[in-house]
Design a protein that fits this description.
By secondary structure, this protein is mainly beta. It is about 0% helix and about 55% strand. The chain is built from no helices and eight strands. A hairpin with a 5-residue loop joins β1 and β2. The radius of gyration is 12 Å and the shape is globular. It starts with a strand and ends with a strand. The mean pLDDT is about 95.
Length: about 80
C-alpha cells in the first residue's frame, strides 16, 4: 500500500497482479490495473504523483503507469 504525496490517492498491489488506485477518504476506485503476472512486489507513486512505478515477481518487469489515465507508459524487462 502506498499513499500519494498529496495524500489524495491510495494504491495497493496484490498477489493477483492487480494494482488498485482509489481516492483517499472516500475509497472510490479510480483504476484497477492488470499490472503483472503473479504478485506485485512493489508499487509507489512518483514524486509528482503523476505516475506509478511497479515491479512484479513472475514476469520480471518494472512498469511505469500514468495515474490519471490508468495506462502503461513504459516497461523494463529483466534478464
Amino acid at each position: 500500500m502506498n499513499i500519494s504525496n498529496d495524500c489524495q490517492l491510495v494504491l495497493s498491489g496484490g498477489w493477483d497482479g492487480l494494482i488498485i488506485i482509489w481516492k483517499n477518504y472516500t475509497f472510490d476506485v479510480i483504476h484497477t490495473l492488470i499490472a503483472h503476472k503473479g504478485r506485485v512486489i512493489s508499487a509507489v507513486f512518483s514524486p509528482d504523483d503523476q505516475n506509478i512505478v511497479s515491479c512484479g515477481g513472475a514476469d520480471d518487469r518494472i512498469r511505469i503507469w500514468n495515474v490519471q489515465l490508468g495506462i502503461l507508459l513504459y516497461e523494463i524487462k529483466g534478464e
